[in-house]
Design a protein that fits this description.
43% of the residues lie in helices and 9% in strands. The protein is of the alpha+beta class. The protein has a four-stranded antiparallel sheet. A two-stranded antiparallel ribbon has the order 1-2. The protein has a two-stranded antiparallel sheet with strand order 3-4. The two termini are 22 Å apart.
């Protein structure tokens, strides 16, 4: 198939299906088949208890990975599948996953709000860290979108903010006292920011928390101003010490606006769109990390970007799918102190499927 775009001819490889019918890589039929294969892989990856294993892997030897039981990661797999929720197979996946997530629910010290720890209750690492606001916000909004009830009182989280009204990450006063040292360790310094309250907090954590608060009708003007200032002054990725990935921040802000009722960041969207399109390479990638490429593509699709830049990015994603239907384990987020990263084939695959669905749509 020869396509004409911007006066340039480029060729798209054809792919033959098992019945001998040829589909162009970016045809609806071919993408539907990729989604079907991906769903099959996710079904196979789901464990009997409804969970999906997270893995911590060695940076220098990424094939060396240790499994982690995680309700937060399980939510991370079903969250992007929301777009495919009308598929009966997805319904079964979600039904089992949400039961596991609820079984791993904990509560704030006052018992008013359900919270989640990155490590599941039965994981050997559960007691290493406390529950955190980012995990809780992400899991809570995922459950709410799927109509699952749980103890929910956002006021119980208010005590974990700094003087500027921005959220720390931990549901623990003791752990939050160390956030400034964590930020410094992550490469940031007070001089990087126009407001001293921006140091010692994470912009992705606050973007996720803003989405959660806005979704339940409690949009935070302090976080709104912070996020818009981060975008205006290009303070990413130094604004995040847990998620050193500028594309993750861009997606958090854009999806918050498009999917979670965050109205106050609308003025930042064109700037993020410009950032994403400028950073995209000629081959349709942003990074050697496939997860970064997937989320950057989703961010462009969410914001309504069309044309060759999106086409070639989606084509790159399609080419990374294996014959078994999965996309590889990738660096979803690094460890702040150790040369390891966290990810899984399941979360990469589910996120890739959401990109393909959005493109078809």
């Amino acid at each position: 198939i020869v396509a004409l775009g911007g006066g340039i001819f480029y060729f798209l490889r054809e792919r033959k299906n098992e019945k001998g019918v040829y589909f162009a890589p970016l045809s609806r039929e071919n993408i539907d088949r990729a989604i079907d294969r991906g769903l099959f892989f996710i079904e196979e990856q789901q464990r009997p208890d409804g969970s999906f294993l997270l893995y911590v892997c060695d940076v220098t030897e990424p094939e060396r990975c240790d499994p982690i039981q995680s309700a937060v990661h399980t939510a991370g797999v079903i969250a992007p599948l929301w777009l495919l929720r009308e598929n009966p197979r997805v319904h079964k996946i979600v039904e089992k996953a949400t039961q596991f997530i609820l079984e791993n629910m904990e509560t704030t010290p006052d018992g008013k709000h359900a919270v989640w720890n990155l490590f599941g209750k039965k994981d050997k690492r559960h007691d290493r860290i406390p529950a955190d606001i980012d995990s809780t916000s992400f899991v809570a909004i995922t459950l709410k979108k799927y109509g699952v009830s749980f103890p929910d009182d956002t006021s119980a989280l208010e005590r974990y903010k700094n003087d500027g009204g921005l959220f720390y990450n931990w549901i623990s006063d003791t752990w939050n006292k160390d956030e400034k040292s964590r930020h410094s360790f992550g490469g940031g310094s007070v001089g990087d920011y126009p407001d001293k309250n921006y140091f010692g907090v994470d912009c992705v954590v606050n973007a996720d928390t803003l989405s959660y608060l806005s979704y339940v009708g409690k949009e935070s003007p302090e976080i709104c101003q912070y996020i818009n200032n981060v975008v205006e002054n290009k303070l990413y990725p130094q604004c995040t010490f847990y998620y050193r990935n500028p594309y993750l921040f861009a997606l958090a802000v854009i999806s918050g606006n498009k999917d979670y009722r965050v109205s106050c960041t609308t003025s930042s969207l064109p700037k993020l769109q410009d950032f994403l399109t400028i950073q995209e390479k000629e081959d349709g990638t942003w990074s050697a990390n496939i997860f970064s490429n997937i989320i950057a593509t989703i961010a462009l699709l969410e914001i309504g970007t069309q044309g060759e830049k999106v086409d070639i990015a989606v084509k790159q994603i399609l080419e990374k799918q294996s014959e078994d239907g999965e996309w590889p384990t990738a660096n979803v987020f690094p460890d702040l102190y150790n040369p390891v990263f966290y990810g899984s084939e399941a979360i990469t695959t589910a996120t890739a499927l959401s990109a393909l669905f959005l493109y078809n749509k």
